Amino acid sequence: MKLYSYFRSSAAFRVRIVLNAKQLPYETVPVHLVKNGGEQHLPGYLAKNPMGLVPCLEDETVILSQSIAICEYLNEAHPVPSLLPENLAERAWVRSVCNLVACDIHPLNNLRVLNFLTKTLGHDEAEKNDWYRHWVSDGFAALEKQLENKAGRHCWGDTITMADAFVIPQVFNALRFNCSMQAYPTLQRVYDNAMLLTVFQQAAPTAQPDAE
Q: pLDDT band for position 23 (50/70/90)?
């Protein structure tokens, strides 16, 4: 398998966690989102992912974009260990956590949105960071409530699930932007526990071959 990835992409970080949790070998193909005007816009990459985003997974003849779809594909193609609970309602709960991150928090804070704020709309760095922290705070307040009665060492009890693959990268990015975690003790605990494990350490941006 090939994973087209950018080391700082939290969406690619999610997929790396899932690949590591399932002990699946893969080749990282770096796609730099800034250099050369953004390598995600090159024709060769757009042929694989017309949206021009990362990640993109190539598994023999299968080419997939969108981290949720990729993670679901990997979980179904390689069902052991499963990253979703057996119970229907619990599976839906894990997916709701994934979607809260992927649909409600991340789209407002990804690189192309932040670039649009500064380069097109003319906001300065401080205003950009205020925007980032506002939406992280808004989403993390909801996540904290959702996790506080379910989380143990990880988002769902003491078992690694797909929820952790989505939550951990978002917290990692929030810390990179100096967002305060004081109001989110459950999220902080889950993050700290995860980052003690090789699965998450090896998926982290700083551990990637294209890390700067």
A: very high
